């Protein structure tokens, strides 16, 4: 198996681990990394492309799209960190615009999205996160028609130490033992989530939506 994958959000908590696992995998022959900031290292099977505006895709990267088997989209933004229109742009426009370019170049390509628990596909939720995640899922599902997969984790426990983005995340980290004790529906580690997302490029999930418990079950298959 010699897969070529494109990873976005590779400087983030989950995306960086997806990248690490992809580079270590013998089943992945080439890794394309795309984002606005560099991962700041080189690897023999990694090629990185940067753009200050995500949807202004470099021509050199677009030339790589026909060979990309699977897009692993891990870009995200915390609720409250940016204005409403920017949140929607990052959550909906970024993945959808990349997906359109990918499918135009490779109609047989696949796409996995790091979404979130509570994504609302009715698009009627008053919660910005739920509504926008649901809309992104709907649009990507229509585009890929059977080769789109969405990962909906609950609380993601960061295995590697980091500065938490806000007070609620600091509290959630302290309460992780409680989240974990509540069962597999509510939490997952960043390492487990990353392994699940990468696995979707190697062994396609049997269903489109993977909730927290289903991600954990998928890892055991």
What is the CA-atom radius of gyration, in angstroms?
A: 16 Å
Globular, elongated, flat, extended or rod-shaped: what is the shape? globular
Q: What is the number of E strands?
A: 9
Strand fraction equals 15-25%
Distance between the termini: 18 Å
Fourth CATH level, the homologous superfamily: NAD(P)-binding Rossmann-like Domain
Structural domain tally: 1
Q: Biggest sheet: strands side by side, in what order?
A: 3-2-1-4-5-6-9
Q: List segments where confidence is low: pLDDT < 50 over at least 5 consecutive residues.
A: none
Query: In this structure, how is the largest beta sheet organized?
Result: 7 strands, parallel
Please trace the helix and strand order, writing H or E for each element.
EHEEHEHEHEEHHEHEH
What is the CATH architecture descriptor? 3-Layer(aba) Sandwich
In which range does the helix fraction lie?
Answer: 40-55%
List the SSEs and their pairings.
Layout: E1 3-8, H1 15-24, E2 28-35, E3 46-50, H2 59-62, E4 70-73, H3 84-105, E5 110-114, H4 128-144, E6 148-152, E7 155-157, H5 167-174, H6 176-181, E8 187-189, H7 190-202, E9 209-211, H8 212-220
Parallel strand pairs: 1-2, 1-4, 2-3, 4-5, 5-6, 6-9, 7-8
């Amino acid at each position: 198996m010699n897969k070529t994958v494109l990873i976005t959000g590779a400087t983030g908590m989950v995306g960086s681990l997806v990248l690490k696992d992809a580079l270590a995998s013998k089943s992945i022959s080439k890794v394309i990394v795309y984002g606005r900031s560099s991962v700041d290292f080189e690897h023999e099977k990694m090629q990185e492309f940067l753009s200050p505006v995500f949807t202004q895709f470099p021509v050199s990267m677009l030339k790589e799209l026909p060979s990309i088997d699977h897009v692993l989209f891990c870009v995200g933004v915390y609720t409250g960190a940016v204005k409403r229109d920017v949140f929607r742009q990052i959550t909906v426009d970024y993945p959808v615009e990349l997906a359109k370019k990918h499918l135009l170049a490779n109609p047989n390509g696949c796409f996995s999205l790091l979404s979130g628990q509570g994504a609302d596909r009715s698009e009627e939720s008053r919660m910005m996160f739920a509504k926008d995640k649901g809309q992104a899922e709907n649009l990507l599902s229509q585009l890929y028609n059977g080769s789109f997969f969405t990962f909906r984790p609950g609380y993601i426990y960061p295995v590697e130490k980091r500065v938490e983005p806000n007070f609620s995340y600091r509290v959630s980290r302290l309460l992780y033992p409680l989240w974990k004790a509540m069962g597999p529906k509510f939490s997952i580690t960043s390492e487990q989530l990353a392994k699940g997302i990468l696995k979707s490029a190697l062994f396609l999930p049997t269903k489109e939506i993977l909730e927290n418990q289903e991600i954990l079950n998928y890892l055991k298959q």
